Each structure stands twice: as C-alpha cells, then as structure tokens.
Amino acid sequence: MYISSLVLHGFKSFGQRTSMTFGEGITGIVGPNGCGKTNIVDALRWVLGEQKQSILRSSRMDEVIFHGSRNRKPSSFSEVTLTIHNNRATLPLEYTDVEISRRFYRDGESEFLINRNPCRLKDIMDLFMDTGMGSDAYSVIELKMIEAILSDLEDDRRRMFEEAAGVNKYKKQRRSAQRKLEATRQDLERVSDIIVEVESQVRALRLQLKRFARHERITAALKNR
After folding, report:
1. What is the CATH number of domain 2-135?
2. Torsion angles phi and psi, residue 100, rounded to 5
3. Where are the domains of the chain?
4. Per-position pLDDT tens, the chain of length 225
5. One GO CC term of this entry (predicted)?
6. In sequence order, which residues have a C-beta less than 8 Å from that of residue 3 and are 6 or more positions away?
C-alpha cells in the first residue's frame, strides 16, 4: 500500500488545483521556504480526518481554505483528494485504488467521500485504524513525535507502540462495548424504577377495586330490601 496521488484545490496556499503523483519507494519534495511543503503534510493529515486545529497550524478550521492573493480571489471551499494504491489489500475494501476526499466550505459545512461516495468522518477513521496511515498515526513523523518516543513518559511511548502493533482497533471496540454495557445498566435501573412505580400503582388500584366491590355489595343489599 502506498500513496499514488494527492490533489489539492483551495487548500491553504494551493489556490489553484494542484496534482501530485507518487510511486513506490522514496519521494522527496524540495523547495524554498514558504513554498508550501509543510502544507502538503497538513493536507495529508487533514484528508485522513485530522480535527485538531493546532496540528494543522491553524486557529480556526476555515483557515485551511485559500484566503486569496494579489492575483487570485479567495476560494469558497477547500478540497483534498488522496488516492492510495491498495495493492496488498491492507485496507478492507475490494478496490485496488482507494480514493479519499474531504471538502470544507466557508459556511462550516463538511463533506467526506470514499471512492466518490459520501461517508462519515468515522468511516474514514475506522478505515485507516491500525494501518499506520491514520491522522494520528506514525506515518507522519514530526519532531514532537520523536520527542514522544524518547520521552520518559510511559504513556507517550505506549501510544506509539500500540498504534504500530495494531491494538487500537481492539481498544476502541472494548470502549464501545463498555459504553453499551453502561447504557444497558442505566436502562435496567430505569426499568427497575418503573417497576417500583407500577407496583405502587397496582397496589392502589387493588385497594380501589376492593372498595368498589364492597360498594357494589352494599348497594345490591340495599336494593333487595
């Protein structure tokens, strides 16, 4: 599995549609300071579902949209499309090429697509979980991630190794099961409260029924006199 192409349109400094193709092996991107090299890394993380604005080096999400230049008007949306050659079937999809797209509009509306079919952000996150290519995975190595590996804090190192070992999927499934169990427990507590309330109402109705039956007997006896 490898990235075969990346298309940016209106993303940060890429005001016009820009397409890049990659092959297997190592690809180097070079250029002067300020030409947008880091924005390419941001685009990779963004299309894979990154939501943290600090990681995207933005204070607001709409800052990922091209804000215009002297010769070009601001863009009304930002779009990044990533194509992955799934030659080893690492992704659980029956496609040799998997296309992931993300759009963001100035009004705050977002769109996510897998092979041009609308999907949820969760679908993209689940698709890349434990593949090493998620938005928070080790496929993008930054200085702070190296510091985390060398850190004395066990939690920092553990998160990196768990991602590499592919256990995050099972931890997520466990958390989901725990949430369902907690929701079921709360439902059972509510059912118990309802049962207590209904039993109280049943006792009151039984008492009323006895009084009504007594009233009927007395009324019938008076009529027979």
Report:
1. 3.40.50.300
2. -115, 130
3. 2-135, 184-225
4. 889 999 999 999 999 999 999 988 888 888 898 888 989 989 999 999 888 888 888 888 999 999 998 889 999 999 999 999 998 888 888 899 999 999 999 999 999 999 999 999 989 988 887 777 766 666 676 666 677 667 667 776 677 677 667 677 778 788 889 999 999 999 999 999 999 999 999 999 999 999 999 988 888 888 877
5. cytoplasm
6. 22, 44, 82, 83, 84, 85
> Rounded to an integer, what distance in angstroms lies between the CA atom of residue 108 and that of residue 91?
30
Q: DSSP per residue over 152-202, as a string?
A: S-HHHHHHHHHHHHT-HHHHHHHHHHHHHHHHHHHHHHHHHHHHHHHHHHH
157 and 151 Cβ atoms separated by less than 8 Å: yes
Structure-token match 């190192």, residue found: 157
CA distance 80 to 99: 10
Instruction: Please list the residues that pair with 138 across neighbouring strands.
Output: none
Which residues make Cβ contacts (< 8 Å) with residue 130, sequence separation at least 6? Answer: 163, 166, 167, 168, 169
